[in-house]
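Ticket #4471: structure output looks truncated?

Reporter: J.K.
Steps to reproduce: submitted the chain below (710 residues) through the standard prediction queue, then opened the result file.
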Amino acid sequence: MNVTITPERMTDTPISPLLCGNFIEYGYGVQTEPMSAELLFNRSFEIIPPYTYQNNCWFGLYDPELWKIPEMRAKSCATDWSKFDWYHPGYEHNAWFAAPAPTKKTPISTESDYLCATTPYRKMKLSYENGGVHGRTHLLIESMEKNKPCGLAQRGKWIRKGVKYIIEGWVKRISGDGEIRFSLVPEGEWDNPVIEFRTIVEGSDFVKLHFEGESPYTGWCTFVMWLEREGKVACDAFSLFEGDAIGYWRKDVIETVRDKLKPSVIRWPGGCFASFYNFRYGIGPRDERKPVPSYYWGGLADNDAGSIEFASFCEAVGAESMVCVNMFHPKKEHYNENNYIIPTTLDNKLVFLPRKENENERNFAFYKEDFANTEFTDEKEGLRHVKEWVEYLNGSVDTPFGKKRAEDGHPEPFGIKFFELENEVYRWFKPTEYAEACVKYADAIKSVDPNAKVGIVSYSTMSENLREILDICGTHVDFLADRNGEEYNLKYQLGIMREFNRTHSNKLFYINPEWIPFVLEKTTDAYNMTTENQTYWFSKWIYAMNIFREMMMWQREGSDVKFICFNNLANTHAQNTMETPPDKVYLSAAGKAMGFMAQTQASFPLVLEGFEPGLYQAIQAQAAWDKDEKRLVLYGYNLTDSEQEIVFSTEKVGKFSKASVRVISAPDVDSMNRQERDDVFVDAFEDECAEDHYRMVLPPLSFTETVLDK
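Returned output as attached by the reporter:
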């Protein structure tokens, strides 16, 4: 291919420096938990709801044929995720178990309470009990052994030599006496603790215990609380926390996101999760927050990660925050009840069937109140909710919720700029109804922070009625939040937006808050799954190659496209940029692509003679000035399985002598990065540039960036 670079710009504005963003959704795909420095699963000893139908559906974890048979639905979902090629130990749901006992992985089952209540080696019993200091339930450990220690344990803790670990927990002595020991032991070595603390607990109330110790050992451990002899002890709100954490988050996670992914903006806390989120449950001390069933995706939202944790994460990695706001609506009350797998209904309670191996142990219920959401139905309460949330995030310490934020450990306002009004609003709102609600919510947000930028959903039915929506709320908002990645749709929405901007003083911009660059050439069904193991193509190199060509498309529109939030950041069953198993953080194929594009110097895209840009070409060329208009940034995209060549003529834009090249590639379209092997390669080298042209050689299945300098 031969192309000529012209001095004509494709847009009047530069590529937005915020273009490469990302997205964290709480409760979606076990995303946040493995990123945190908290090492215990279900640390508050709650009954964990099953995942919902749409969760298992979206991630390909269910058998579609079994799902058609109502009585088989509880057995239709995968219980062993280790068979999937995206699996790593961060996805494990480690049960609490009676110790000593053989340690093993816990099946992820709709019938599981994630509690192994007995052990063949001791006379003891574990049981969930109502009440406690945190959440709805706590755990009771009862030892019937007079002289043998009995333990409450959880496996799967990766411990690093030289790192301090913080152990905390609320404990109440009910009967008996003797020491209580907290230990970290190498898996299977019950009598060989690497960290251990001993204490005596007396009295009739819960007492909070706190211990700190440095590990002399690197490896997999089991966390254990031992009772030395006969008695009963109640436990609640335990914690095993890494002492080198950055705030709430693992140090290696923060460093990887900050130094390799470099996202410009991060959207949180959802997504679909945001539509049923009450920020008040995620503020205050962790042990005083309210764990609740995650209404949309299933599982438990323990709310250990709340507003301060998410906003601080963004600060730590150098990204702006975009908060997705919950807009209350009457239709939310019963929206999701049918998506839970509830095998039995009894006495107005929604309950699970007993576990077959121990019929009498499963005696706790979820009540119908957990599956209805009257708290999110009243618009006036929704407006009060959003004003308090913005005040908590951005208000001064002189405001009630700004003062609360300061009491929670962050005196300075976060100064969050971007607020998106809901997610997938077609579920609740008609287009004009949504537009009218947006006026109220946008005004409420800006009454607290006049500098806030507020965006409206512009996809699905809202896209079809976009002009009418803007007629109602356009002067109250600042951006469109669209989810479609097709070029024809981008042109359509930008056309309406630019038409609005020509006749109004406030200038709108465009974002994509939840970008999924679907594979275009190679799909096996509507969700881009493979038929062999129902794992998404999202983890494969073909998906990363789609990122490059869609990023070039966004760039060609200049700063009218402000940012794109890739869906998702981490640990979403391959739909991510990063995996965070306990012992190693690594980028997915998509993550390497996003990190590559986040470091580009391209700023002003230029028209090429000899190539008409478009999304679907297998071989593509693009050129742009850098921000100082001194260097040329050239792209070469090759989706074919053979080497290709692009000759860029530079005679119309100047003479260049130096060429710095970066190439990213993989052996085939199915390549991916795993914990044990990295199949995506990045190469960087210096090259020669002729006086009037540059010859770019494109390896198979690759993306190349060359920076020409004088």
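Triage note (M.O.): checked the attachment and the full token line is present. The longest strand covers residues 164-176.
Status: closed, working as intended.
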